[in-house]
Amino acid sequence: AHTVDIHVKQGIVTVTGSVDNLLAAERAVRIAATVKNVRAVVNRIEIAAAERRDEDIRKDVTETLLFDPVADAGEVEVEVSGQQVVLRGMVDSWQEKRLVGLAVKRVPGIQAFDNRLAIAEAAQRGDDEIRVEIEARLRWDIWVEASEIEVRVDNGHVKLSGTVASLAEKQRSIEDAWIRGVQSVDADTLSVDWLSARANLR
After folding, report:
1. Which of 8, 143, 194, 202 is least buried, going by the fewest C-beta atoms within 10 A?
2. Are strands 84-91 and 40-47 parallel, antiparallel or unpaired?
3. Interacting residues of 143 by C-beta distance below 8 A, sequence separation 6+
4. What is the pLDDT of residues 107-125, one digit of tens each?
């Protein structure tokens, strides 16, 4: 934390400084998003890892995927150019794509990361089935007040609306909505307003 600086103006937080890897930078932004009254977070953190060759980064990423219990390394192609990593290939779910990305971001020396993994086509699911499962996930998530969020599904496209108490809760709600059969998640009308949160918010 001593390498990260915080500047706040009218509820907009700008995070600057340097950290060792991309995952640490994202973690700092997520922590800032949990604070009440934060309307947005601008990430200007630099990755201060020592200069590394592309082939060394590619080797480390490949080994990371090989030993990661979630990733199917045989289905993932790794490209590295100018310390920028691109992943291509196929995974079974959005959750697997996200977890593979988290594993790769721990590798030092990566300045930028582009997760282009495609998600395998799943069997068609009805909109009502998707909606019911998302609502259940929101209710079981201790970081989300599900009673304040409305879920609509149209041909696999999910729209979240209502009010949440923080940017972190909004991000968590979006993650909960990405289940099997979902084509997209739109949370543009899910507003952040901590003053409207209920007193029993978990």
Report:
1. 202
2. unpaired
3. 168, 169, 172, 202
4. 998 999 999 998 876 667 8
